[in-house]
Structures are given as C-alpha cells and as structure tokens.
Amino acid sequence: MSSLTLCCLLLLFGLSCEGREILVGGKSNTWKVPESKAGETLNHWSERTRFKVGDSLLWKYNAENDSVIQVSQKDYERCDRSEPIRGYKDGHTKIELKRSGPFYFISGEEGHCQRGEKLVVVVLSPNHNRSNVTATPVSHPVNAQITAKGSGHRLNGAWSSIATACLLLLPLGGLLV
Predict the structure, then answer these.
(1) Of the chain's two ends, which shows fewer C-beta atoms within 10 Å, N or C?
(2) pLDDT class for 123, splitting at 50, 70, 90?
(3) 3-state SS, residue 11
(4) Would the pLDDT of 73 be above 80?
(5) Homologous superfamily in CATH for domain 19-148
(6) Where in the chain are the domains?
(7) 8-state DSSP, 39
(8) Residue 23 in contact with residue 145, Cβ under 8 Å?
(9) Which residues in 14-34 are b (16+ Cβ under 10 Å) and which e?
(10) Helix (H, G, I), strand (E, B) or coil at 133
(11) CA 152 to CA 154: how far, in whole Å?
C-alpha cells in the first residue's frame, strides 16, 4: 500500500470518528415553549435523530428569557428545577454527549417545562447494531442541522498533520507506488 493511500485512509478514518455538532430542533430558536401541545415538539425531533457518544448538542435561544437545565429523569418528569445536574443561560449552549443512554433537559424558567419546553435525548451505545433497528416511516421531512465538530470542517491536532502530509504527498503519488 502506498504512503499516499495510507495517509488518505487515516484521514478518512479520523473524519468518521469525530462527533457531530447537532443543532437542537434542527434550527435556531427552537428552545422555547411550544405554540401548541398538539404540534411538533423537540421530543418528536429527538426521536427521529440518532445521537452517538461524542456528538454535541447546540442550543440557540434568547438568553434574556430562557435557559437550559440538565436534570435527572425524576426531575424531568416532575419539571423540578431545584436540583439541576448542570445549568446554562448563555443563549448558545453546547453540551457534549460523553456516554450512551438518556439525557434529560428542561427549561430553567418558571412554568416553561410544564408547558412543554423539555427534551429527552437518547445516545446510542458505541456497540449499537443498526441492523436490529426497525425504520419507522416519517410522514414529513426531518430537519436537522448536523456538522462536523468545530467551526466548519476544520481538523484539529493530529488529523490536521495527517491532512497536511497527504496534501504534500499528493503530487508525489505516482512516484511512491
């Protein structure tokens, strides 16, 4: 195998292992009290989106009148804000999903959770076998904005060095075979 091929394979492997940055609800300003209980909720969106360990959730919301609180399942069900795991009020909240299993989020503002401003995200196990999952048809298109972590598609650390090496070796490709 040529050095060029090896570099490119390593680069592709690195890109596939990076987590994604997922905009909550698929667009800005979805973290708010739903307009109606019968309409689309963030949990409907979450059920249609696959989350993996290493992905990050990104909330974009008005920090003047809202916040995000990570809570236990019990506090999620009760809309109890008194013992949060973590709380955020910056309007641009980013949380990395570091383990598999459920994550529970509610609004930190009085009455918002009771009116439906809450979210459960289930992160798949790294050993999850996709062949055991039955696909459920969706009657409307799924809107999700998912990007590679970071700004755009920039690479960090070692992967940046590998990409640079590949670019330098590319003109020599014919000589290395």
Answers:
(1) N
(2) very high
(3) helix
(4) yes
(5) Cupredoxins -  blue copper proteins (2.60.40.420)
(6) 1-18+151-177, 19-148
(7) S
(8) yes
(9) beeebbbbbbbbbeeebbbeb
(10) coil
(11) 6
Amino acid type, 32: K
Give how far Cα 88 sits from Cα of 8, 45, 114, Å. Answer: 40, 21, 19
Contact 64, 29 (CB under 8 A): no
When comparing pLDDT for 127 and 137, which is higher? 127
**For the chain, the helix, strand and coil percentages under 3-state DSSP, each to the nearest 5:** 30, 25, 45
Stretch (H or E) spanning 36: none
Helix (H/G/I), strand (E/B), else coil: 167: helix
pTM for this entry: 0.65
Q: Looking at 13-17, 96-100, 137-141, which range is the least confident one?
A: 137-141
Residue 56: phi and psi, rounded to 5, are: -125, 140
Residue tagged 């009771």 (tokens): 114
* Length of the chain counted residue by residue: 177
Q: Are 103 and 70 in contact (CB under 8 A)?
A: yes
Separation CA 24–CA 95 (nearest Å): 11
